[in-house]
């Protein structure tokens, strides 16, 4: 049965687990509870509009009986005015939690990343890391403090650095998407990033290799391959002299590493970098001489079949012999697909004296070669995996002879 005494330092000290509860004799509803583990917590019981509420004041480990009494008096005064102190406390706690998630860094990590994982686990971390790296100066800001002017300044800096409009637009739209989710989830009422209009850019840019550039690229790849082989041979000779186990020899394999087969397949299939890097050996049909781009790896979310020409087929056939135990065609050290080829690709371009050429431009090269060879644009569209013909029309100017043949049909 609960004890009835004035809550004080001495009565709290005397409270036992068997007592369970001590009701104060001076402030109605003020009481202390003791758990089976001996932990004492102060509470205030009250009724408001017929509703019964037990308001937690705090643990005895943090509050003296006198402090708890003062808080109980204060809260009872608020209750007398018709205020539900428990509801206020709950709202304050929710506001504090909400305010915590308003911070861009916290929001990205604790709210946005888990959400993205439910949509597409493969890209979730990449999207959040992209936002973190691009907007590192905004990470300490609250979501409702990020302004259109902040983004305008950021865009101006990016343009001075020579970043492509499409790249800038992608990053801005990614941040817009994140803030729109915050609005949808009730964290902020609105955001003003809709005022930041996309930079108009020329999406018809087609950069492909000239005949001399292609020869130079192929030579640079072979030269790099030979240098890696010689370096391995030299290292092994040194190990043998020191009575150490040599690394596997590269003398009997077609390629020293992944880069040459990766570039050759890109040139001969037109696959996007992400589609290439996520290819598994199960996606290759050696009997049918084609590869399958799975819908889960395709930008358009639609799978497609890409036939393998002679060079693509022989490249994959030779590369397969070197990777009989791997799951993915281009595998990293962890047994997962490669994620980055920027450094070796940049070095090869430098060795070949090729400028203004991105890895994605190998896709343009593939399409351009097809069009210049007389392949119709719809077939090119299907091979590239474009959702509609509009994207493929950028290559139309490469087939002037077809236009000439068309107008010659009349007159």
Describe the structure.
The chain has about 400 residues and is an alpha+beta fold. The chain folds into three domains: about 90 residues, Integrase, DNA-binding domain (Double Stranded RNA Binding Domain, 2-Layer Sandwich); about 90 residues, DNA polymerase, domain 1, CATH 1.10.150; about 200 residues, hpI Integrase, Chain A (Orthogonal Bundle), CATH 1.10.443.10. About 50% of the residues lie in helices and about 10% in strands. The strands form two sheets. Strands 1-2-3-4-5 form a five-stranded mixed sheet, covered by helices on one side. The chain has a three-stranded antiparallel sheet with strand order 6-7-8, with no helix packed on it. It is elongated, with a radius of gyration of 34 Å. The N and C termini lie far apart (about 110 Å). The model has no long low-confidence stretch (mean pLDDT about 85).
């Amino acid at each position: 049965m609960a004890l009835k005494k004035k809550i004080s330092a001495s009565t709290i000290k005397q409270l036992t687990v068997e007592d369970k509860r001590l009701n104060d004799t001076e402030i109605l509803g003020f009481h202390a509870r003791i758990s089976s583990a001996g932990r004492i917590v102060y509470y205030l019981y009250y009724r408001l509009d017929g509703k019964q509420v037990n308001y937690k004041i705090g643990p005895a480990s943090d509050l003296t009986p006198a402090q708890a009494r003062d808080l109980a008096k204060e809260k009872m005064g608020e209750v007398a005015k018709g205020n539900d102190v428990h509801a206020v406390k709950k709202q304050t706690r929710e506001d504090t939690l909400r305010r915590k998630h308003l911070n861009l860094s916290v929001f990205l990590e604790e709210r946005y990343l888990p959400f993205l994982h439910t949509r597409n686990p493969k890209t979730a971390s990449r999207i959040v890391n992209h936002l973190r790296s691009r907007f590192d100066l905004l990470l300490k800001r609250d979501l409702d403090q990020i302004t259109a002017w902040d983004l305008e300044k950021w865009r101006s800096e990016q343009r001075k650095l020579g970043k492509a409009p499409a790249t800038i637009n992608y990053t801005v739209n990614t941040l817009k998407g994140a803030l729109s989710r915050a609005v949808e989830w009730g964290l902020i009422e609105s955001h003003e990033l809709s005022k930041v209009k996309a930079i108009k850019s020329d999406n018809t840019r087609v950069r492909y290799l000239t005949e001399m550039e292609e020869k130079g690229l192929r030579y640079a790849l072979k030269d790099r391959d030979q240098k890696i082989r010689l370096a391995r041979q030299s290292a092994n000779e040194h190990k043998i002299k020191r009575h150490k186990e040599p690394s596997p020899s590269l003398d009997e394999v077609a390629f020293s590493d992944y880069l040459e087969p990766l570039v050759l397949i890109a040139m001969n299939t037109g696959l996007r970098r992400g589609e290439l890097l996520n290819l598994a050996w199960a996606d290759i049909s050696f009997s049918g001489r084609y590869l399958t781009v799975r819908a889960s790896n395709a930008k358009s979310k639609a799978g497609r079949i890409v036939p393998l020409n002679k060079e693509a087929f022989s490249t994959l056939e030779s590369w397969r012999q070197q990777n009989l135990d791997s799951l993915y065609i281009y595998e990293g050290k962890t047994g997962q697909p490669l994620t980055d080829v920027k450094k070796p690709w940049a070095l090869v371009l430098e060795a070949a004296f090729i400028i203004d050429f991105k890895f994605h431009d190998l896709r343009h090269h593939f399409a351009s070669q097809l069009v210049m060879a007389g392949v119709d644009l719809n077939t090119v569209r299907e091979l590239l995996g474009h959702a509609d013909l509009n994207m493929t029309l950028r290559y139309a100017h490469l087939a002037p002879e077809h236009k000439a043949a068309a107008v010659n049909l009349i007159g």
